[in-house]
Each structure stands twice: as C-alpha cells, then as structure tokens.
C-alpha cells in the first residue's frame, strides 16, 4: 500500500493570508505553480489560485497590491494527511478536486503537496 508521505513533494512553500494578491501572483510565477497554499503560523488555512486572483481582484476592481490573500483564498481546501494511504485519499475525493492538494501532518502543519496524476499506484 502506497502512503502519501512516500509520493508527496516536500519543501513546499506557502504565503501568508496577510500577503497581497500581487505577492502571491509573483510567488506563483517564481515557483511555477498555479496555486499556493496559504498558511498562518505554519498551519494550512487555505489555498489561493491564479484564477482566484484574476477573478476576485481584477474582475471586482480590487487593487492586487493591497488586497490580502486571506480575502481571496478558498478557506476550506481539499487536503490530506501525510500518513494516509494514497488509495484512501483518492477514494474520498470527487472529480472536482484539483490535480495537486496540500499535505498536512496531524497538527495541520503544511508538509508537502500531493500530485494526483503523478503518484505511482502499483507500489507493493
């Protein structure tokens, strides 16, 4: 049985809910990601996507340089524990889930990202 910690990416970076939308967009560009986890005191509190920034700031006329990520983020993102089995995670997700989800420890501290389309499914 493949466990999440065996296939997740480590060293994931996050932004603060107090960071600006502009700072989050720059982080996405620098880290080559379409979304970034949002953490406060190391704990996952949400995720913000490039679409969140475009739709929730630009379309609403909000200034990206001063609009906090916490105002734009999805506060209840899909996430999983590092000590869950990969199959268990797949079974509880539905088709609307993004390809990458944050991985947390039991204290809900961000420890990695799980790429759903890239994890091996034939480990023994």
From TrEMBL:
<feature type="domain" description="CBS">
    <location>
        <begin position="8"/>
        <end position="65"/>
    </location>
</feature>
<dbReference type="InterPro" id="IPR046342">
    <property type="entry name" value="CBS_dom_sf"/>
</dbReference>
<protein>
    <submittedName>
        <fullName>CBS domain-containing protein</fullName>
    </submittedName>
</protein>
<dbReference type="Pfam" id="PF00571">
    <property type="entry name" value="CBS"/>
</dbReference>
<feature type="domain" description="CBS">
    <location>
        <begin position="73"/>
        <end position="124"/>
    </location>
</feature>
<keyword id="KW-0129">CBS domain</keyword>
<dbReference type="InterPro" id="IPR000644">
    <property type="entry name" value="CBS_dom"/>
</dbReference>
<dbReference type="InterPro" id="IPR051257">
    <property type="entry name" value="Diverse_CBS-Domain"/>
</dbReference>
